[in-house]
């Protein structure tokens, strides 16, 4: 199993389930859209609007400088998050042996951010439906990771 997570050679050979590859692509597309919104690259909504609507951060109660600082931190997080997603897209396109480690990196990122949010809770407005998106994403990442390090049965039968 460790050989799948940390391959000796990073190439395009992939031995896990292809469902994990397609799930990773869908997750990366979804997470990239989140990154674009955070940076403010969405022409329909600014970064501040995303903070107020999607993340329920009450920017209108902040001073102008504090609101600008929060928007800046949110945007820089979006750029970093997009860079991690870009690594995932590169793995899918060219270096598929990296797919298990990409899943682990995304899991570490998501679980770490969730732990920080729980460690340093903030008061949020309750104007939107509270859907546990983070829990759903973490669950899908765990499923994808498991599929990426597992060997499909038809491959096992060919070896035996």
Q: Which key phrases capture this entry?
A:
mainly alpha, 7 helices, 68% helix, elongated
Structural class: mainly alpha
Helical residues, percent: 55-70%
**Gap between N and C termini, in Å?**
18 Å
Instruction: Tell me the major beta sheet.
Output: none
How many domains? The number is 1
> On the 0-100 scale, what is the average pLDDT?
84
Low-pLDDT windows of residues: none
**Outline:** elongated
* Number of contiguous helices: 7
Instruction: Give helix and strand order, one letter per element, not per position.
Output: HHHHHHH
Number of strands: 0
Oligomer: single chain
Q: How would you portray this structure in words?
A:
With 160 residues, the protein is mainly alpha-helical. The chain has one domain (17-152). Helices cover 68% and strands 0% of the residues. Helix 2 (18-39) runs antiparallel to helix 4 (64-93) and helix 5 (99-119) packs antiparallel against helix 6 (133-149). It is elongated and about 65 Å long. It starts with a helix and ends with a helix. The model has no long low-confidence stretch (mean pLDDT 84).
């Amino acid at each position: 199993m460790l050989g799948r997570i940390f391959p000796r050679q990073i190439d395009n050979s992939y031995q896990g389930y292809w469902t994990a590859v397609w799930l990773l692509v869908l997750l990366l597309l979804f997470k990239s859209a989140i990154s674009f919104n955070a940076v403010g690259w969405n022409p329909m909504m600014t970064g501040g609007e995303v903070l107020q609507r999607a993340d329920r951060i009450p920017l209108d109660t902040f001073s102008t400088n504090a609101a600008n600082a929060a928007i800046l931190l949110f945007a820089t997080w979006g750029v970093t998050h997009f860079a991690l997603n870009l690594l995932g897209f590169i793995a899918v396109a060219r270096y598929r042996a990296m797919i298990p480690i990409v899943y682990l990196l995304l899991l570490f990122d998501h679980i770490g951010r969730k732990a920080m949010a729980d460690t340093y809770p903030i008061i949020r407005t309750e104007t939107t439906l509270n859907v546990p998106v983070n829990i759903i994403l973490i669950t899908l990442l765990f499923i994808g990771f498991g599929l990426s390090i597992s060997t499909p049965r038809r491959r096992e039968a060919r070896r035996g």
